Amino acid sequence: MERVVRRDVRELPKAHLHLHFTGSMRPSTLLELADKYGVRLPEALTGAEPPKLRATDERGWFRFQRLYDAARSCLREPEDIQRLVREAAEEDIADGSGWLEIQVDPTSYAPRLGGLIPALEVILDAVDSASRETGLGMRVLVAANRMKHPLDARTLARLAVRYADRGVVGFGLSNDERRGMARDFDRAFAIAREGGLLSAPHGGELTGPSSVRDCLDDLDATRIGHGVRAAEDPRLLKRLADRGVTCEVCPASNVALGVYEKPEDVPLRRLYEAGVPLALGADDPLLFGSRLAAQYDIARRHHDFSDDELAELARQSVRGSAAPEGVKEKLLSGIEEWLA
C-alpha cells in the first residue's frame, strides 16, 4: 500500500492577500496594549478562546465591528503600529508566507496619529521597517469603508495613488457589504486604477452572487475579497475563471461569521474546480483564532485537497499578488521544492 506523504503546510511558500490591520494583532499584544493605556476591553476579547461571532444579521455584524473597534482603540502611538506590523510579519513567516499585503483604512487611525497623511506614513514606515527586519515582502492595500460617504473613498483613493511609490499596491472596499452600493464607489476605484493600483473590493460574503457581479461590473475588480458566494452561480464562476479574477477566500472567517455552518460547507472545492484563482487568507486572526497556515489545513482536512492541490492554491496566491516578478519566481520555485 502506497504511503501518503502529508507535507507541513507551514513550510509551503505562499502569499497572503487578505489580512486586516488591527485584526492581525496577537491576542497577547492586545491585552498588553489595553493594560498600557487603561482600556477596558469587552470580555469577549479577554478570554482564552476566540469570541463567539455571527454576522449574518445586522446586530451580529454590529457586535463584530464593536469588538474590532475596541481592539483598534488600543493602537495609539507609532510604536504600537510598528509592533503590530512586525509581529504580523513574524506570524506570516512562521506560516510559510513570503509575501504579505496588509489591508488598512488609515482614516481609522488618523485621530490618534496626527491626521490622515501622517497616519498612512506611520503605517508605511512600519511596513518598510518590518519588511527589512524580517525579510518578508510586504505591501499595503488601502481600503475605503463602504459605511462612509463615497467622497471619503475618493479622498482615500487619491492618497493611495500618491503613495504608490511608498508601498501602496491596491485599493479595497470593506465593512458590511449589505450597506452601500458598489457603484457609489466607482469613481474612487477609477482613480485608483488610473493610478496603477489593483482593485480589490470585498464582495460575495454576507450577500450573494450579485455583490460579486457588482464588484466586476462597477469596480472592475482584479481581485475579490472573499467572493465565496459566487459558487451559487455557475455563470459567474465561469466569468471569474475566464477573467482570472482571484478570490481571497478566508474559510475560518466564513465559519466564524456564520456565512457557512461548518468548514466543509465553504465551497472551496467548487471554486477550485471551476478554475477560479484562489488566495487563502486569515482575514482577522485576532477575532477568528487562526492564521494563514490553518486555512490550508482546512482545505486539506475538510475538502480533501492533496499536497499537489495545496501547492496549486499557493501558486494561485502568488500569481494573484502584486509582488515583483523576482519575488514571484522565488516563491514559485519554493513551492516546487516543497512538493519535491
Q: How would you summarize the topology of this molecule?
A:
Layout: E1 14-20, H1 27-37, H2 58-72, H3 78-94, E2 97-104, H4 110-113, H5 116-134, E3 137-145, H6 150-162, E4 168-174, H7 186-194, E5 198-203, H8 209-219, E6 223-226, H9 234-243, E7 246-248, H10 251-256, H11 268-273, H12 285-288, H13 292-303, H14 307-319, H15 325-339
Parallel strand pairs: 1-2, 2-3, 3-4, 4-5, 5-6, 6-7
Return the average pLDDT rounded to an integer. Answer: 94
Note the run of SSEs as H and E: EHHHEHHEHEHEHEHEHHHHHH
Q: Number of helix segments?
A: 15
Sheet-strand content, in percent, reads: 5-15%
Number of strands: 7
The coarse overall form would be globular
Structural class by helix and strand composition: alpha/beta
Mind describing the biggest β-sheet? 7 strands, parallel
Query: In percent, how helical is the residue content?
Result: 40-55%
Query: Cα distance, first to last residue?
Result: 21 Å
Strand order of the largest sheet: 1-2-3-4-5-6-7
Query: Which residues form runs of ≥5 with pLDDT under 50?
Result: none
What is the rounded Rg? 19 Å
